[in-house]
C-alpha cells in the first residue's frame, strides 16, 4: 500500500526503489519487474528523480531517462497497468503523473520564468519571479454505465477497434458538477436523457492525468443518436450477451461488471 504522507521529501538514496521511464514507456527488468533497486542502474544528473511516497516501508522515486539503461527493456504503461493488482496500479499511475508534471512544468505558465526547484514537502513548483504555484494537473472525467431494463448501453468511439465497446465518458467542464457532466455527456454523445445518477467509484487514468469518476444511471427517454465524430456506434446489449468489453483492471470494465451484478441482484423473479 502506497503511503503518500506529508513529511519532507527525501533526496534519492541507495536504499530506495525506483520506477524508470523512457519517453512514455516504463523500463522493466525480467518478469516485467518495474520497482528497481538503486544498484541496478547508473544514475545521472538529468534523470530528475521525483519522490512518490513509501511502499512497504521503502521510499519510491520515479525517474525519466533519455536513453534505455543496459539490462532494461520497454513496456507500454497501459499494457503494464493491465497486469497489476489495484495497489501496483495506483503506484504506477502516481509515478507516471508526477513525472509528467515535472517534465511539463519546466517554466512558469504565467511569466515564463524557469522553475528548477521543487517544494520540500509538497508536489508543487513555485515560480521564483511571480510566486505562482504549479501543482500536478488532474483532469476530472465522468464515465457512466447506463441501464435500460436488463440491458446496458455500450458504445464505440472512432479510435476503438471494431467490435470493442465501452461506456460513455467525457471531461467535466468548468463550473459543472459531476452529475451535470454525466447528463450532458450522455445527451451530447448518444442523445439520451437519464435519471437516478449515482456515484460508484473512481480511478486515476494516467494518459496523461485524468481522474475517472464512475457512475450508474438509468435510461429515462430518447432514441440512440450517435454524435458524429465522437461515437461510431452505440446500442443496448442484454447483460447475458455482451460484446467485447474493457479489461477488468480499468474502471470501465469494473463498472460494467458491477452494474451487471446489480441488475441481476435487483431483477424481479
Automatic annotation (TrEMBL):
Domain Nudix hydrolase: 136-259
GO molecular function list: hydrolase activity; metal ion binding
Cofactor section: Mg(2+)
Top-rank lineage group of the source organism: Bacteria
Coiled-coil annotated spans: none
InterPro entries assigned: NudC-like_C, Nudix_hydrolase, NUDIX_hydrolase-like_dom_sf, NUDIX_hydrolase_CS, NUDIX_hydrolase_dom, Znr_NADH_PPase
Main enzyme class: hydrolase
EC number per UniProt: 3.6.1.22
Family annotation (PROSITE patterns): NUDIX, NUDIX_BOX
Keyword Metal-binding: yes
Keywords assigned: Hydrolase, Magnesium, Metal-binding, NAD
Cross-referenced PANTHER family: NAD(P)H PYROPHOSPHATASE NUDT13, MITOCHONDRIAL, NUCLEOSIDE DIPHOSPHATE-LINKED MOIETY X MOTIF 13
Recorded family membership: Belongs to the Nudix hydrolase family.
Protein name in UniProt: NAD(+) diphosphatase
Organism whose genome encodes this protein: Marinomonas rhizomae
Lineage start: Bacteria, Pseudomonadati, Pseudomonadota, Gammaproteobacteria, Oceanospirillales
